[in-house]
Amino acid sequence: MDLGRRDYLEALSLLVQRFEQQRRDSVLPKSSPLDRLKFLMHERDMNTADLGRVLGSQPIASLILHGKRALSKTRIVKLAKHFAVSPALFIE
Questions:
Q1: Residue 46, phi then psi, degrees to nearest 5
Q2: Burial 15-33 (b: 16+ CB within 10 A, else e)
């Protein structure tokens, strides 16, 4: 593949990524951070164990999903990277 095509495909890929993120960001803010997390998990067919692997602790993931533990800044960053969304989605 020549350089021009590769650059074009990379730019197109970035535009699609940004569009999808903006679309998700515009749909999700009407709910709580926990509801947003649950929505994103459902969208990716994730369970508590999957979330635990993302956060580094299944017990913490369970506490968060049951509303007994708040999301820390560190966990918000991990979630934002994992779901490819703005960290602002997980902040009230």
A1: -100, 150
A2: eeeeeeeeebeeebeeeeb
Task: Report whether 49 contacts 60 (CB < 8 A).
Answer: no
| Assigned superfamily of 3-90 | lambda repressor-like DNA-binding domains (1.10.260.40)
Distance of CA 33 to the CA centre of its chain: 11
- Domain residue ranges in the chain: 3-90
Write the pLDDT tens digit of every residue in 36-72. 999 999 999 999 999 999 999 999 999 999 999 999 9
